[in-house]
Design brief:
Blueprint lengths: L1 H17 L11 H13 L4 H23 L8 H10 L5 H10 L9 H23 L12 H15 L2 H11 L7 H14 L6 H14 L3 E2 L13 E5 L11 E5 L2 E8 L6 H14 L15 E5 L4 E5 L8 E2 L6 H13 L6 H8 L12 H15 L4 E6 L5 H14 L6 E5 L2 H13 L9 H4 L1 E4 L9 E7 H9 L13 H7 L23 E4 L2 H4 L5 H5 L5 E5 L4 H6 L4 E5 L1 H7 L4 E7 L10 E3 L11 H7 L18 H18 L16 E4 L3 H15 L6 E3 L7 H10 L5 E4 L14 E4 L6 H9 L7 H7 L8 E6 L18 H17 L4 H14 L5 H11 L3 H10 L3 H28 L2 H12 L1 H30 L4 H17 L17 H9 L1 H15 L1
Parallel strand pairs: 1-2, 4-5, 8-13, 8-14, 9-11, 9-12, 10-11, 12-13, 15-21, 17-19, 17-20, 18-19, 20-21
Antiparallel strand pairs: 2-3, 3-4, 5-6, 6-7, 15-16
């Protein structure tokens, strides 16, 4: 075996020596040398064989790239594999074009000229791969071979071809999928991008730098024009002589004064080292200068090799160089000068983070603890000078409000000139714009729009006075990369949604160029909403274009997202934490399986993943990468076909009483179908599903309808779905928005394949938000409270994310018996980690059903609210929470933490009895609550009459709002302003309608006064 290996090694060495164009790949993958040399050797004599070798070269290179990047590829179809790599950011546009050329032939006999083109494309890929791995920036030229050399090359290829099947099997085993830290993948992505373009000749670097300066609005002065510094706001001196006989490549002047320096370096130079040299010259340029100097040493410093551009602002505290996509405009440097002169203590945006952002106080009272923590984490990151920060917040936990509050503090205290919000759908952009404009600033109660202009980005560009801009990635792509403008409605559905349905969705790389209407220095801060969607595919180039700190918010930060944000996850608020805090409900998951024999199907609970299998959050996020590679079959997604629809839907209908036992009436029938979303494949499939649902449930048109973003009346249908009791089931083909509109959803039926785990989590998040009991009852008569989301999976999608605990028996006597069993185990001290998690979820399901009196009693007995008890139980089995304990005290510390969480239950029989009593008296609870609401309603009516008499008169439309606010106050005991976006207010425009009815300023004052009066 050793001898055989030695012979192979010798043969490959001989082959590499004979191949000037592919031999340099031998240390990285010998098969690439073999296939590249085979293509070259046979291009003129056997074009068809050369084309086959080129195809194999591309397949091996794609597999090698995927292995090195930790990207899982689907089996077989090379175009799909290339699309996966492109979406991972591994294939810049020129590289993807070269790959596609290798696989653009049908395998027939080719003319020699065409085969020669394939050889050159293989060489292009080989040179790119080599530069990406080594960082070598030396130009590499294709070496044409003589006929005699090709003959020798073919002989050496032929010697190895007999071993090719065995070599390929060994290669496939070596490049089996393996995980890779997000930071390592990100470094490879950056290297791949940098290597995709041929290095510039040294003589061309200065010309390219001057071209880019002119694009940014700089006036490049020619020979003999050094005394014309006032000809334009920003002028460039080329190769000026400095004191001591030194020369700078270029000096920048603004308003006739020297402010900056540019150094040009040959490709491959370490630009960070070159920046130190630029700093020395920045000081020398001000000594005995022939021109007026603004500040010494010159603060604005650039170093470039013609492609990359490194910038440093010496006015920053602890200045740090950063790569930028283009030169700053003269007007930007002039603004920075004015800011620095006006405030010497905090001369830059970064410096103002530490100087002026109050740590707490103003406005923080309207945030929940996770929101406050996220805001402060972002601000600390900006203060530290980190350019990218990632915040993970579970859907429905106030992510958008956190983003808006962050922007407010940056505008108000850090004096950001302009902030950009990026989202990937028009409907979310509209919602964000509305939320920004209506945001009530804590320092005086004025709306944000009263002080700062808020604008949605359009083809017309930016208004000069705009402070906040909201843009879709489609709009940015049209302006920066020349893709079709979103006026055609393309921003209503995201590419992320399209690719989820199609394994071969377009993954073409975006080529971003300088846009004079939207320069890179347009913003001080960029906030990316749902950044796992905005970063999808090659959209990263759109965000890298701007010279501004990037703050991303995501409910599902995948490996791609973590890599882009340099693994800088500054704060995390998970779905499990949201369940513990009572701001999300957990899921019960059932599976429907249909056999080919069309036997009756039934819904059965799926297995839970278990505590032991649940790793750390960061590890799960780094593995959550299936949006890059389908985990199901390639090609069209699997769906429940028409001939099985009736069987599946009948099983779903029949299982509803089992899944919602507390809603059943006499005879075991369900009174009202819970608000349900059905996930279908596409428009035709959705239409078929709608018809079948109406047949199975014996219902009319209003009962079930289709909603897709491409529908002209999608917004109207969404409003009707969330506000009317008659519309029970919505059939969708993608994630319906906005999430805040979907609180009444209690059931999700999945009828088509979900390719990625990240997408599956987002799908579930549509229905896991909590809802006020009164709002739920308004649209689902007979419901008491929302305690769970029931997921019914008919296509195996639940494999992506099995629940920690899958509880399907939390109601009635079966729920009581299960809880009693667990409570008894706490007394015995025998509770396992898995049972601890189950106990926590069972108690979490009780939380929404508690009356005020019940909550007070449990707080008294436990010494803490039920939600805090649930949080401690879940923390005691959470890998991230336990990690520092395990490091400090080992296994014993972990066990002590769990015992401490269980102690209030284990040692308190009265508390146990009180919890079990909640199962024994569901009906009296509702009657008592109803009686209390009746007495409260009478008091509220008296106070309302006094209020309207004192503050009126009001129009009929205004009275409608006031009376319904009073009704909600009577039902809930208070009125939270967020209720304005729920039933019944959403039917009249929600918060926008309320502001329109009274006027923005008067509406806010009236609501505050009305809430005080009715409380």
């Amino acid at each position: 075996m050793v001898q055989e290996s030695s012979v192979l090694e010798s043969r490959f060495t001989d082959l590499a020596g004979a191949s000037a164009n592919f031999g340099f790949l031998l240390p990285y993958e010998p098969l690439l040398v073999l296939h590249g040399a085979s293509c070259e050797a046979r291009a003129s004599t056997a074009p068809a064989d050369a084309a086959a070798a080129a195809g194999q070269f591309g397949e091996v290179l794609a597999a090698e790239l995927a292995y090195r990047a930790g990207v899982r590829l689907p089996v077989g179809d090379q175009p799909v594999r290339l699309a996966v790599l492109a979406r991972a950011g591994m294939l810049p546009a020129p590289v993807l074009d070269a790959f596609n050329d290798l696989h653009g032939f049908d395998g027939g006999t080719r003319e020699g000229q065409e085969a020669a083109h394939l050889v050159e494309r293989c060489f292009t890929l080989a040179a790119w791969f080599f530069r990406a791995l080594t960082g070598d920036a030396e130009p590499m030229a294709f070496v044409p071979a003589q006929a005699t050399d090709l003959s020798v090359l073919e002989q050496r290829v032929a010697v190895l071809e007999g071993d090719l099947p065995r070599l390929r099997r060994a290669f496939d085993l070596r490049v089996a999928p393996a995980s890779l830290p997000a930071a390592d993948r990100e470094q490879l992505i950056v290297s791949a991008r940098d290597a995709a373009y041929e290095p510039l000749r040294e003589a061309d670097i200065a010309s390219e730098v001057q071209r880019r300066l002119a694009k940014a609005g700089w006036d490049v002065l020619g020979a003999g024009e050094d005394d014309e510094l006032n000809r334009s706001l920003g002028c460039v001196l080329v190769e000026p002589r400095l004191a001591g006989g030194q020369r700078a490549d270029m000096l920048l002047t603004v308003g006739g004064q020297l402010v900056g320096i540019i150094e040009c370096k040959r490709d491959g130079t370490d630009l960070t080292d070159a920046m130190e040299q630029a700093g020395v010259l920045a000081k020398a340029a001000t000594g005995s200068s022939l021109w007026p100097v603004w500040r010494s040493p010159l603060p604005y410093r650039y170093v470039s090799d013609g492609r990359r551009l490194l910038f440093c602002d010496a006015n920053d505290p602890e200045p740090r160089p950063r790569f930028v996509s283009g030169f700053h405009q003269p007007s930007t440097l002039a603004r920075w000068q004015r800011e620095a002169q006006a405030d010497r203590a905090a001369p830059t945006y970064r410096a103002r983070q530490a100087a002026y952002l109050p740590r707490e106080g103003e406005g923080f009272g309207q945030l929940r603890a996770p929101q406050r923590r996220a805001v402060r984490a972002v601000e600390q990151t900006l203060e530290a000078g980190q350019r990218r920060a990632l915040v993970q917040m579970a859907t429905g936990t106030g992510q958008n409000f956190t983003e808006v509050f962050t922007a407010y503090r940056q505008l108000r205290h850090a004096r950001a000139a302009r902030i950009l919000f990026v989202t990937d759908r028009r409907v979310i952009a509209d919602q964000l714009t509305s939320q920004l404009r209506q945001f009530s600033m804590p320092d005086g109660g004025r709306s944000l729009a009263d002080v700062y202009r808020v604008q949605e980005l359009t083809a017309a560009g930016l208004a000069p006075s705009t402070s906040v801009v909201v843009a879709t990635v489609q709009r940015l792509s049209a302006m920066l990369a020349g893709t079709p403008a979103p006026e055609d409605g393309s921003d209503r559905v995201s590419a992320y949604e399209t690719a989820e349905r199609q394994a071969d969705a377009d993954a073409a790389a975006l080529e971003v160029t300088y846009c004079e209407a939207l320069p890179p220095d347009s913003f001080d801060l960029v906030i990316v909403d749902d950044c796992h969607r905005a970063l999808y595919g090659q959209r990263r180039a759109l965000l890298e274009y701007f010279d501004a700190p990037l703050v991303g918010f995501s409910a599902t930060p995948t490996a791609t997202v973590l890599g882009f944000f340099n693994s800088n996850l500054v704060d995390s608020y998970t779905y499990e934490q949201a369940v513990a805090d009572g701001v999300a409900v957990d899921c019960s998951v059932y599976e429907i399986q249909v056999s080919d024999s069309r036997q009756p199907a039934f819904a059965a609970p799926v297995d839970a993943v278990g505590v032991a299998a649940k790793g750390s959050r960061r590890a799960r996020y780094e593995e959550l990468d299936e949006e890059l590679a389908p985990t199901g079959p390639s090609g069209p997604a699997r769906v429940v076909a028409a001939d099985h629809l009736a069987t599946v839907l009948t099983a779903f209908r029949d299982a509803l009483p089992t899944m919602f036992p507390d809603r059943t009436q006499q005879g075991g029938l369900l009174g009202v179908v819970p608000k349900t979303v059905v996930f279908a494949q596409d428009g035709p499939h959705a239409d078929e599903v709608v018809e079948r649902i109406r047949d199975v449930f014996g219902a009319g048109d209003v009962f079930c309808r289709r909603i897709t973003h491409r529908d002209a009346h999608a917004v109207h249908l969404l409003r009707e779905f969330r506000t009317t009791p008659q519309f029970r089931i919505a059939v969708v083909t993608d994630l319906i928005s906005g999430f805040s509109d979907m609180r009444a959803i209690e059931c999700l039926l999945i009828l088509r394949e979900v390719r990625s785990a990240a997408y599956y989590e987002q799908l579930l998040a549509m229905g896991t938000q909590t809802i006020a009991s009164a709002e739920l009852r308004a649209v689902t008569p007979g419901a008491v409270a929302k305690t769970q989301l029931v997921v019914v999976d008919a296509v195996g999608a639940s494999r992506h994310l099995q629940p920690l605990v899958n509880l399907t028996d939390t109601s009635g006597q079966s729920g009581r018996a299960a809880l009693e069993r667990l409570l008894n185990r706490t007394v015995d001290g025998l509770v396992t980690p898995q049972e601890t998690a189950e106990l926590a979820i069972r108690l979490a399901r009780l939380t929404p059903t508690l009356s005020d009196a019940d909550g007070a009693e449990i707080r008294k007995l436990a010494g803490q609210p039920l939600q805090e008890l649930v949080t401690r139980l879940l923390d005691s089995v959470d890998a991230d929470h336990l990690a520092p304990l395990r490091r400090a005290g080992g296994k014993r510390a972990v066990e002590d933490e769990r015992r401490a969480a269980l102690y209030p239950l284990a040692e308190n029989p009265e508390l146990q009895e009180a919890l079990l009593d909640l199962y024994d008296r569901p009906a009296p609870l509702r009657v008592t609550a109803s009686g209390r609401r009746g007495r409260t309603a009478e008091t509220v009516r008296r106070r309302l009459a006094a209020f309207t008499q004192r503050t009126g008169p009001f129009t009929e439309a205004q009275l409608w709002w006031i009376e319904n606010i009073a009704d909600a106050t009577a039902a809930e005991g208070r009125f939270d302003p967020v209720y304005l976006d729920g039933v019944p207010f959403s039917a009249r425009g929600g918060t926008d309608g309320f502001l329109d009815a009274f006027g923005p300023d008067a509406a806010i004052d009236l609501l505050d006064e009305l809430r005080r009066e009715l409380a």
